Amino acid sequence: MNLPVHDFGPFLARKPAQIAKGPLAIILIEDDKAVAATLSHHLRRGFRHILALSDAPLTLTEAELAPLAGKVTNLILNTRRPDAHVEAVNAVIAAVPEAIWLYYCYNAEFLFYPFCETRSVGEMLAFHSEERRSAMLTYVIDLYSGNLGRHPDAVDLEQPLFDRTGYYALGRKGADGRPLERQLDFHGGLRWRYEELLPPDRRRIDRIALFKAAPGLQLLPDHRFSVEEYNTYACPWHHNITAAIASFRVAKALVCNPGSRDHVHDMTWRNSHPFRWHSEQLMELGLMEPGQWF
Description:
The protein is of the alpha/beta class. The protein has two domains: 1-107, Rossmann fold, CATH 3.40.50; 109-294, no CATH class. It has eight helices and 13 strands. Strands 1, 2, 3, 4, 5, 6, 7, 8, 11, 12 and 13 form an eleven-stranded mixed β-sheet that branches. A two-stranded antiparallel ribbon has the order 9-10. The protein starts with a strand and ends in a 10-residue tail after the last helix.
């Protein structure tokens, strides 16, 4: 069975009701891994609608489709080409009303934020807006299988692992070489442990995945925005909420890409730890924080 399918550009040009209110999720589907699980997870977080972008119509079973009906629209776009997120996100920014909250991720990625088990993403973003914030930093936390023989694509939704240590931040400099205020480059996870197999511009784990649409706002290829304040981790006067995206994306790439697959036989190490699919675990390890939200 299929979701409603439309061509990406013409759908946005019509400015349909599905994109009139936020929070709105944009999910880029790059392969067939955990597609239904990704869509269902984000609907449970409370997004009003999801735009599922893929290069061909998605086919789901009747059981997978049932909870998605009326809440997910499948848009056709070449999501496999480099930097597809730039075209996709910027086109949606230009099409939606100003100041609605948007979110973007890829399939086999799962958003977590403080207390997400009992509070909707809309509640969290309403508080963030009250703090005069228009964007939210998310850390992309790599998930992976502990048994690549059983899970050759590195995706294990039942017993995933992640790195509980090894995360760090470096100061970020602007084009003039000076440090940028309240901006850092964050590193860790598989991108750190296998950095020799990843290009330098793919080694950061920070992503501004939640943000308000604004006239002229542009997402850049490195997951930062053209407005520098959007790229900050907090306001000047206190810490703000941060979120996390638990992601199999790097693990999938490492075991599938020709340049790395022969070098990766077991992703586990002494600091691999079971991922519990709960926001409390991420807060305990400092991988996201509630700020002033309790």
